[in-house]
Amino acid sequence: MTPQIIIIDDDPVSSKIAQISIQRNKPDVMVTVFNNPIEALDSITTNYESFAQQFSTLLLIDINMPEMSGWEFIESLNQNIPALEEKFKGIILSSSVDPADIEKSKEYPSIVHYLTKPFTLDMASTIDQWFA
Questions:
Q1: 64-111 residue pLDDT tens
Q2: 132 pLDDT exceeds 70?
Q3: Which residues pair with 31 in a beta bridge?
Q4: What is the pLDDT of residue 124?
Q5: Alpha helices, DSSP H only, in 33-120?
Q6: Taking 90 as the threshold, does the pLDDT of residue 117 lie above it?
Q7: Is 76 exposed, middle or buried (0-12, 13-18, 19+ CB in 10 A)?
Q8: CA–CA dist 57, 100 (Å, integer)
Q9: Could you tell me how far CA 56 lies from the centroid of its own chain?
């Protein structure tokens, strides 16, 4: 199965840093970027069955976005995709260091880690551990 990372972040600079860091360290990983969480939600919910068959998919999700928060995004995925945690794993990638956000991420079975921005080359080099 081809590894795939979908970045959902309204900040195009942050998304680009993450994308370049991942591609530099993991050239075999397919990276898709959505700067609008609503577009990402539509694409993922429409195509999740083919994603699940073709790719091992990891979502990098910002939580502070104007159109829809990362929490709302995860809730919507949970409502639209049965057994979400079996199809996708998610990592919160946020500038928030609020302990409440870190704890909240643990409430979602599909969220496997919480990272604080900026995304770094070191983070990209450890990404294999979240593909399973």
A1: 999 999 999 999 988 887 766 677 889 999 999 999 999 999 999 889
A2: no
A3: 5
A4: 84
A5: 37-54, 70-80, 84-87, 99-105
A6: yes
A7: middle
A8: 26
A9: 12
- CA 49, 73, 115, 25 torsion-angle sign: positive
| DSSP state for residue 129 in the 8-state scheme | G
Tokens of 80: 């639209």
- Rounded to an integer, what distance in angstroms lies between the CA atom of residue 68 and that of residue 124? 26
Q: Give the Cα separation of 72 and 51 in Å (integer).
A: 21
* The pLDDT value given to residue 84: 63
- How long is the chain? 132
The band of 54, judged by pLDDT with boundaries at 50, 70 and 90, is low
Q: What is the largest CA-CA distance in the chain?
A: 36
Q: Whole-model pTM?
A: 0.91
Instruction: Kindly list the structural domains of the chain, giving each domain's residue range(s) and its CATH number in brackets, ordered by start.
Output: 2-130 (3.40.50.2300)
Instruction: Assess contact for 70 and 105: CB atoms under 8 A.
Output: no
The tokens describing 76, both together, are: 């919507």
